[in-house]
Amino acid sequence: PHQLQQCKQPQTHPQVPLQPGQSFKFTVLETLDRIKEEFQFLQAQYHSLKLECEKLASEKTEMQRHYIMYYEMSYGLNIEMHKQLFFTLLLHYYCFIQNQGCGKLL
């Protein structure tokens, strides 16, 4: 708590000029402002990524729904194809039997 009160007080000592090879010295308020800006940037980035993630999850659900629909259609067509094949073979066999019977009568 004591440190926070110090941050609110204006800075009374003069800033020391930079010497060659010395890095820039931030004040506490400047550092807090910079941290606040970085935090806001990270929050905005998080929000953007969260929206993107939700969008991708929605697209994934939609793709799964389409996959199931196409799978069901494919399965139904496969069954129908096997039925048609069965009836074709049955008709072929019936015609073969009929031809064999006609051959014996002649």
UniProtKB/TrEMBL annotation:
Residues 32-59 form a coiled coil. Its main location: nucleus. Residues 24-85 form the Groucho/TLE N-terminal Q-rich domain. It is found in: Nucleus. Keywords: Coiled coil, Nucleus. The keyword Signal does not apply. It holds the Pfam family TLE_N. One of its GO terms (biological process) is negative regulation of canonical Wnt signaling pathway. The keyword Ribonucleoprotein does not apply. GO terms for cellular component: nucleus; transcription regulator complex. One of its GO terms (molecular function) is transcription corepressor activity. InterPro entries: Groucho/TLE_N, Groucho_enhance. It comes from the Eukaryota. Belongs to the WD repeat Groucho/TLE family. This is Groucho/TLE N-terminal Q-rich domain-containing protein. It comes from Astyanax mexicanus (Blind cave fish).
